[in-house]
Amino acid sequence: MILMIEDKKAKNRLLKARADMVLHHPFFASLAMRLRLKEDRTCRTAWTDGKIFGYNPDYINILPREKLVGLSAHTVMHPACNHHLRRKDKDPETWNKACDYVINPILLDAGLMLPDGFLWDDAYVGKTAEQVYIRLVEGQGDEDSNEEENNDSDPSAQTSGQDEEQEEEDQYSPATDDSENGVEKNPDPDDNTDPGGTGEVRDGSAPKNKTFSEQNNEDTDWDQALIQAASNARSMGALPKGVDILVKERFSPTLPWSSLLSRFIQQSARHDYTWTRPNRRYIHQDLYFPSLVSDQLPQLVLAVDTSGSIQPAELERFQSELQAILSMNPSLIHLIYADMAVTGYEMISTEDLNLSFAPKGGGGTDFTVVFDFIEHQGIHPFCLIFFTDMECRRFPAFTPAYPVLWIRSGHDGVTPPFGDIIDMLPDGASYRPS
């Protein structure tokens, strides 16, 4: 039994590739940081299961820097698209092909370079992985796809064919060890679940429901991670067009009130990064990553009217729309239920966001109790979102120092003396700003 020493050169190259991503591709960098690096000489290239970025150091060491960045971005896009949870009983190799055809156009559009041999076909641009998989299984377009892989005739391809780097990678494959039991093991030549050479996706598991304090670095909700990374990159003016389309198609609420809510959220303290105080975790490796300006989450108050006139269906609609929007903005949420008095209170972090309204009450309505509660608890929110039918005339005598957004169910309620209103139409078709 021969135990191999970790190849520090390969790991440092991956860390430096991540540093390049922070500077030039912040969206992909934000996602890549969520994967734990793990050397794995039993694989040919690289892989992920949504928690680990496994890699063969021999392959990592022969890739040029720009293609190593592309490999890292490609690999992390698999869990970002939940490919590690969607395979089910599909053939692993064909599933990897289908997923590659879906995400490679997004990466190329973002200006990334991929390792030679990457998969590309115009016919699959804009399709889902499941749609492409069916096409591949049925044998439609396979022959054309093989001809188009990394072909110079394709304007989106950066290189042609299996060139010298790929040949070097094939020759540079000494006997290696199995990370599980320490036994020497070479990559299996028949195990080609990464046909494009850009990083394969393996089956993973969805994060379990845990409290915020129980979360660890490997418990990533990739839906939430994708939305947050896109939100941060958008605020920096660095969100690739293809990613923007992907996020909007998957997560944009059906109700057009997100822009108004975003205006409120932008007034909060942000999780900004700074280069003036480097992240000390990587300095000893001569790598300079930015650090967070503040680790304190901004506070948002969400108040829910629990009076008898609020219908459960209305709460469900509000809940689903609000959860999608709040996922884009990390904050500490103070959830308050109230009718004539505060009937319930809990704190939720968007890191552990799982809104499920359980209102208690059913009496009349008095808006003042919510504002009094905020003051007495010493809460300093960047905004208050209040879901109600506005069937009440009891407002505070003062205008609060924080902005207030009223989500009004129906049109029969009164107009508040302060704040902005969004009406939720009775038929559930949409929200519209007043």
Topology:
Layout: H1 8-24, H2 26-32, E1 36-39, E2 46-48, E3 52-55, H3 57-62, H4 65-80, H5 92-109, H6 129-137, H7 142-148, H8 164-171, E4 200-201, H9 222-235, H10 241-251, H11 258-265, E5 273-274, H12 280-283, E6 291-292, E7 299-305, H13 312-326, E8 332-338, E9 342-349, H14 368-376, E10 383-388, E11 404-409, E12 420-424, E13 431-433
Parallel strand pairs: 1-3, 2-4, 7-8, 7-10, 10-11, 11-12
Antiparallel strand pairs: 2-3, 5-6, 8-9, 12-13
Helix pairs in contact: 1-2, 1-4, 2-4, 2-9, 4-5, 5-6, 9-10
Structural commentary:
The chain is of the alpha/beta class. The chain has two domains: 8-201, no CATH class; 299-433. Helices cover 34% and strands 14% of the residues. It contains 14 helices and 13 strands. It has helices spanning 8-24, 26-32, 57-62, 65-80, 92-109, 129-137, 142-148, 164-171, 222-235, 241-251, 258-265, 280-283, 312-326, 368-376, and strands spanning 36-39, 46-48, 52-55, 200-201, 273-274, 291-292, 299-305, 332-338, 342-349, 383-388, 404-409, 420-424, 431-433. The protein is elongated, with a radius of gyration of 25 Å.
